Amino acid sequence: MNLPLHALDTAQFERAQQLLGDEWLAQDAELAPLLPVVLARGVGQDWHKSGTFRHHLVGVARALTLWQQPREVRLLGLLHSVYGNAFVDLVKFDASSERGDLRALVGEQAEHLIYLFCTISRTEFTQKLQAHATAADGTMEVAQGAQRLTLTPREVAAFAIVTMADAMEQWSSWQDDVYSRFPYVNPARQQSVHWASSLWPGPMRPTSRIVSQINGWGRALQHPVLRQQLPLPPMFAQCTAELTAGHEATAMSLYWSVIQMDQPLVEPDCAIAVLEQAVRLNPWVGEPQMVLAQLYLAAGRPQEAERAAASAVHCYSCWGNAWDKRVQWDAWMAWARIVRQSAQQGTWPDRLDKLNNMALRQEVAGA
């Protein structure tokens, strides 16, 4: 098979398992006290990309929790847009009059990060991060309104990690189009001309662009000063491996051709070959591996199915958010675990209607 599949990291999976379902946030001693506050500000009713603003904030906080970030960074993730910013016009706290209120809720350190994240030029920060334009001492100069501000290395690292989680939680093909070439967006594109691209939520393809950009932001954390500041996110081999933009785009197109059934439909060999190539080009997202595992099972190849499904579970355990947003992260995780268990136990049904009855009947080793 010669595929770059991942061994399942049991410790990483166990961290992810604790975050499955909605109840994890209510049980989180550091984040739970803030949930009633943000809900009272209407975040459960605000639209945001692939769901509501609440879904987005919780998804970002979940990823940061999975990445073992400290309290102030996780609070930044949960509240990263509450003062509004250039990317999101959703002001939940008035920065001119309510900073003290938020500071009393989250503490001075977390509120400082939240305020900076909302008021600096996120465009300039993201562009500089993408260009690895951090100073030798780990600082970065950015605009804050009409002023220039120098971010400390810890602030740069925190904002980079939150930016990675923020992008992965929300990005799909709709944002690929309306925010094309982010962070170098062309403001001249008119909706009346590009009306087809504007129709939300669009075809719900996975992004063709943002994962390689997240990869670049993560590799920026290999700066000798920045990598000492905070735990590195686990994807891309702790942000050391490179994913090129061309490989990402090609892998997504190959994956989507199978999902859209633009392959021969009687035998799975062509679809398997296409998905194997997608995994070779981008081994860092779980959905192509999970679909490949199911096809291996259908083709009577359980050992290969088990490896691919375990690798998919590993990828889901690293990200904490779905790449293919047609269904949510915990649903992808649940189905991949069923596929893996079936491959291990030889229980994949022959009858099509029996797929409707699938369930994780007992825990398998490591998953």
TrEMBL record:
Gene3D superfamilies: Tetratricopeptide repeat domain
Domain DUF6817 stretches: 39-122
Annotated protein name in UniProt: DUF6817 domain-containing protein
Source species taxonomy: Bacteria, Pseudomonadati, Pseudomonadota, Betaproteobacteria, Burkholderiales
